[in-house]
Every structure is written in structure tokens, then in C-alpha cells.
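Appendix B. Chain record.
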Amino acid sequence: MLKYSKPITPGSRSYIYTDRSGLSKDRPHRALTEYHHRAKGRNNAGRITSRHLGGGHKRLYRIIDFKRDVRDIEGVITKIEYDPNRTCYIALVEYSNKEVRYILAPHSLNVGDKIIASSKKVDPNVGCAMPLREIPVGLNIHNIELKIGKGGQVARSAGVYATLMAKDSTNATIKLKSGEMRFVNLECFATIGTLSNPDHKNTQVGKAGRSRWKGKRPSVRGVAMNPVDHPHGGGEGKTGGGRHPVSPWGKLTKGKKTRHNKRTQKMILRHRGKK
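C-alpha cells predicted for this chain:
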């Protein structure tokens, strides 16, 4: 649910945020946290390779169980928590063998609910994980593996899900939110349900400082620069650039195809954005 702040300052006038009153206010489970080194956009040589990153608040990294490798043991949801490292919420699961794990929290999963990860067919309740072979066609899924045993790589953001469209002898066909349709091996694991915090896309930060708290630095438009600094720069008055949008180094930056992975090209039935 979205909340609107009272306009008592310029920054709060347009601030829209999600209601987190139902989340746990306890500190994260200590054994499942570790120091989070933030590269701030630098590579191993110290050079900036991803611009506009840096600063921000310190964060503890929560170790998430993307593999769901505690198999055939029932677990109980003990807490739903906020995670500063991702957009969806996380859930603390305590299994009957006393093992404790963090998982991505699906929407409508509540404290006290029971879940299980199994290589066999179980009731397809929200939060349960099983191979695509055992999941009924038409269900919404998330945290989908692309390689058997590697852990979930697809559909991990707030409010996101993929739909299981069909199955053949070896592969399942899934449709992603981007419109892409692709094959995934039937033995790959996925979790039932849609991820939590679906209103994240409707939030507004309200002021520039709140972006800086998140580690996002300002971005200057190329048309506002001088010609020596950017291909779009220069000109009398406010000009529109006069060429196709490019990066500061002259590379096409909007719509240019950058995918060169021929090894997995055959797994994509329909590319994203195509109708």
C-alpha cells in the first residue's frame, strides 16, 4: 500500500512511499548477514565503469537462499523483513531441523505460513519451490533457475513474476514480464507466486537527497555539456543534439543490440519488447 507524506517541506510534498508497518522491526538474523563491499562503480583497477554510483548509507548484506536447497523439510515463516539491497521484501524461514534461511518473500505470504522445497510434486502453495516439471501450467512463478542447481536468476524484483506457459519432454516455456519467452530446463527449480512489494514501481523519492542516500549520484544531460565533453554538447541556445542518442564515447545508447551470447540464443523464443 502506498503512503503520501504531508507537504510540510518541499522534499515531502511529492514523496510517495510504501507502507512498511507490517514488517518486522527487529535487527536482521546475525548469522545470515555479512559485510557488503560496495564498488561504487569502480572496477579492479579503480576506474569508473558504471557512472553515477557512489556514497549512500551503509548496508549489511542479507544472505538469501536462492537455491532453496533445504529439500523435503517443512519450514515456517517467522518474520517478513525489509532488505536495503533489493526491492522486494525477504522472509525468515525456520525449518523443522532448526536450520534458518532467508528467502525472497512472495506477495500474500504471512508470518506462520508453512512452505517446503521439494524435488517431488507438492501442493503448489505460495512460497513452495519445486522443479518446473512438477509445477502446473499457467501458474505465476519467480526466482527461476536457468542452470540446474545454480540458484534462481530470473524474476527476483518487487512485484515481478513469470508465467509457466507450456512444457515438452525436456523444456518448459516461460513468459517474462518484459514479454520475452524462453525455454528453461524442466529440472530447474522455481518458486510459486508473485514477489512482494508490488507498489514499489509507483513510489517517488521526492528530493534529490533521498537518491543520494541510496547511492545514486547526479546525471548530467549530454546536451547541457560542451562539445569537448559530449557528442551532444554545444550549439546556440537549447539544442536537441542533432544526432541519434549516443554515449559520451560515441556509442549508440538507445535501442542498440548488445547481446552476443550465441550459446543460449536458441533458448529464446521471442525477444523482449516484440509483440
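Further analysis of this model is presented in Appendix C.
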